[in-house]
From TrEMBL:
<feature type="domain" description="UvrD-like helicase C-terminal">
    <location>
        <begin position="1"/>
        <end position="95"/>
    </location>
</feature>
<keyword id="KW-0347">Helicase</keyword>
<dbReference type="GO" id="GO:0016787">
    <property type="term" value="F:hydrolase activity"/>
</dbReference>
<keyword id="KW-0067">ATP-binding</keyword>
<dbReference type="InterPro" id="IPR014017">
    <property type="entry name" value="DNA_helicase_UvrD-like_C"/>
</dbReference>
<dbReference type="GO" id="GO:0005524">
    <property type="term" value="F:ATP binding"/>
</dbReference>
<dbReference type="GO" id="GO:0003677">
    <property type="term" value="F:DNA binding"/>
</dbReference>
<dbReference type="InterPro" id="IPR027417">
    <property type="entry name" value="P-loop_NTPase"/>
</dbReference>
<keyword id="KW-0378">Hydrolase</keyword>
<dbReference type="Pfam" id="PF13361">
    <property type="entry name" value="UvrD_C"/>
</dbReference>
<keyword id="KW-0547">Nucleotide-binding</keyword>
<dbReference type="GO" id="GO:0000725">
    <property type="term" value="P:recombinational repair"/>
</dbReference>
<protein>
    <recommendedName>
        <fullName>UvrD-like helicase C-terminal domain-containing protein</fullName>
    </recommendedName>
</protein>
<dbReference type="GO" id="GO:0043138">
    <property type="term" value="F:3'-5' DNA helicase activity"/>
</dbReference>
<dbReference type="InterPro" id="IPR000212">
    <property type="entry name" value="DNA_helicase_UvrD/REP"/>
</dbReference>
<dbReference type="GO" id="GO:0005829">
    <property type="term" value="C:cytosol"/>
</dbReference>
Length: 95
């Protein structure tokens, strides 16, 4: 670290990249999912993430797994589910 400078691992871009790598390595890493799915912006907001989190919690699955579960459409609109599935498909292609 440079004197007075920001630590390499404290930079937002590095934290974002680490979240993607953690999610690729472990799709059940919910904190990594939240950071990665919101960076860059995909039109996935707090309301969507809260509903997804509630659904995942009730089903006792990760956020990533909940995106593909039957019944998610009863909690989220198609407009909310589509970007989530597109993101998860992207992550799956990287694994």
């Amino acid at each position: 670290m440079l004197s007075g400078g920001q630590s390499f691992f404290d930079k937002a871009e590095i934290k974002d990249l680490c979240a993607y790598l953690r999610l690729i390595a472990n799709a059940d890493d919910d904190p990594a999912f939240i950071r990665a799915v919101t960076t860059p912006r995909r039109g996935i907001g707090n309301t969507t993430l809260e509903a997804l989190g509630s659904f995942a919690g009730q089903a006792k699955v990760s956020l990533f797994e909940a995106v593909y579960m039957g019944g998610i459409e009863a909690r989220l609109s198609a407009r909310q589910v589509e970007p989530l599935r597109m993101f998860c498909d992207f992550i799956q292609r990287l694994t």
